Amino acid sequence: MLLCARFSQRTQIEMKDGMEKIFYRTLPLLLAVALGGLSGCRRPTADPEPVSPPEAVQPVEPSQPEPIEPPTPPEPRPKPEFEPPSDHPLSQFTGRRTRVVWCRQVVGMGDDPFAEGPNFILVGLDTHDGLGERVILGDVDNYSKPLLSPDGETVVFTHHPTHRIYAVDWDGSNRRLLAEGLALDLWRDLDDGTTWLIYGERRPDHEHKNAGPVYRRRLDQPKVRKLLWSRTDITADNFQLSRDGQRAGGLFPWNHAGVADLQQHTWRRSGRGCWTSFSPDNSYMLWIFDGAHKNVYLHPYGGGPARKVRLNSAPGTEPYEIYHPRWSNHVRYLAISGPYRIMDRHNAITGGGEGINLYVGRFDEAFTRVEDWVQITDIAEADFFPDVWIEGGEFSDADKPEAPPPPDDIQVEEGQWPTSTEGLVYLWDNAASMNEVPDGEGGLREIQTVRRGHALLGRFFEADLLGGWMEAPGFDAWFAEALRATDAFTLELTLTRAGQHRPAFSVILAMARDADQGNLLLMEKRGEVYLRLLTDESPFDLLRDVHLFRLHPVAPTRVAITYEAGALSWFLNGAPALSYHDVRGGFGPWLPFPFTLGALPEGGADWPGFVEGVAIYNRALTPGEIAANDRARAEQMAARAPGERIHFTGRLLEKTPTPTPESIEPYRAGLVEYLYEVESVEHGELDAPRVIVQHWGVLDGAEVPLAFEMGESYALQIEPVDQRPELEGERVSSQVSDLTAPLFLEVR
């Protein structure tokens, strides 16, 4: 049974001509507005100014975020009596009184899923008032991302064209201005019962709805605000607090998903993706929406493997994309919008179309799947941004780990790499790590290293540099200044060659403009590794390349290179290899040249291999420190399980068109799915008659040519997607019809 209240029986009426169609299409909205007025809803003007902006009187704010104090444990008290379920199907589904609020696009056919334009009304549903779906604010305007207060009595939304945040009572009355910015969350202080608006200041040059810093304002006294988070920008969809206010889940910003410790003012990355949501209890679970826009990866607090939970399993949404996934105030319930069936130049989300409706789902007790769904709306107009309030949801709990993880700072545990951060100026362990270094002022600085060209990530989040490279934009001056200050360095990295090909000249690591001008160049020449180093006694273009070692053609090699006071030394797999004393001088001539891994800047001299565990210090580590780092790295790598690689020949049955790079923005890489009939298996085990294989169709913002023809047979190397965690946040396009075939990635 569909839950959408019908104000007309348009499905039972024969529409005989165009005028009748227009009349019956607009009749539900007209009647809904009229009934809303009869029920006491006030319809404000399009741009009301009931109060002066609260920014007109600002309190003195601390220079650092003010932590939310841990709430005093309340006295044990019985849970209050709740109203019995009504006969409304949603109430029967949740077992409680339930309210839902959302924005409905009434002009245009669902082509504004981010609710940025002026074509919406604000709609709500209460399972216990007998009114069904009703219009809360009926003036066609903007009501982006509406949020329900912890007591279910107030709706807060952002007026996106002006970036102003408003509140309105559930019945549509008392609309008032709260702040300027982007509304993120509503949170109740357990100690005193006050409700706070969590919001971010909009960045003038914002991308992907980025905002920062983040503040909190009392909902009943909006002139009272406190700084909550300023460590990073955040992305407005979705930044949410735990019940105790000690943690927040979100994007820091897109597409770096993680959990912030609001006491320590630190955060830890959980993965990459979009549209996070944070559990409303104190279990600190975070989900990350996947690149296919069909599933979430549920990350338990404190680490451990994420669980993939399918969200396009609601009736009518399979096999399409869904959007706006958001946890309700009850840990077992969530909401989505969908299905999104129409592809446009961007993706199915922006394709819009008719019949984008709302669904509420319920997790099973183990949070491994959504065990059931109920549909909330069934209307031609598009419904977006659902938020669900369930009476007593604040008493719901999921299991929480017995002990929290250690404090979120850069100090490492025994066995972790690197074992020392003294003098650390660059870190790229892998793409899943925080890669933070001391900033010299008592804080931390995260070094962003990004993929370029056809560089990929391996299954351990290492850099696969075949046909591409990595770079750290914006840190050129930082590196040069840090090493000039000491005239010393240590470089650590782990190298694994890909295949037997040994190019005549390739670049492993560079701080250089090109092959003839730079500060430092680590390179390979036909299997031999050399170093070129600029000092004030040795011009870079005249310096003789120092031969270091011969690189193993297959096995990983852990390398450490140190320079200090005219002594150049290197270590292989933790053991001293050789020292060289003919390189002298300091780093006074060093300039802020680009830092790259796997090629020269802008590509060229590509190195075919895998790189991970890269650290640069502005001091020479001792042999003991290098040995300790090497032991920690070796232990990590020894614990890795080998991948399940399969070589097979298959006939191409279906293929998804490759999207344009512009169509998947802000993603810069994307996978496309092809369906193959299995003809033979040359290596490994593959029992399925048909398989879906993901191919890279877009890399670094450019289309990747895929020369596959329908009906032709191809020999491919593949690995199961569920064994490739680095794919979690990647954009996936799929139009294959067989949803039961196992899913694989083409590997190189």
Written description of the protein model:
With 748 residues, the protein is mainly β. Helix content is 7%, strand content 40%. The chain has five helices and 48 strands. The strands form nine sheets. Strands 25, 29, 30, 32, 37, 38, 39 and 41 form an eight-stranded antiparallel beta sheet that branches. Strands 13-14-15-16-17-18-19 form a seven-stranded antiparallel beta sheet, with no helix packed on it. A seven-stranded antiparallel beta sheet has the order 28-31-40-33-34-35-36. A hairpin with a 5-residue loop joins strand 4 (144-148) and strand 5. It is globular, with a radius of gyration of 28 Å. The relative contact order is 0.09.
Alpha-beta content class: mainly beta
Low-confidence stretches: 1-60, 401-414
The rough form would be described as globular
> How much helix, percentage-wise, in residues?
under 10%
What is the average of the pLDDT values? Answer: 86
Using DSSP, what is the number of strands? 48
Count up the helices: 5
Strand content: 35-45%
Q: Strand count, sense and closure of the main sheet?
A: 8 strands, antiparallel
Distance between the termini: 49 Å
Estimated radius of gyration: 28 Å
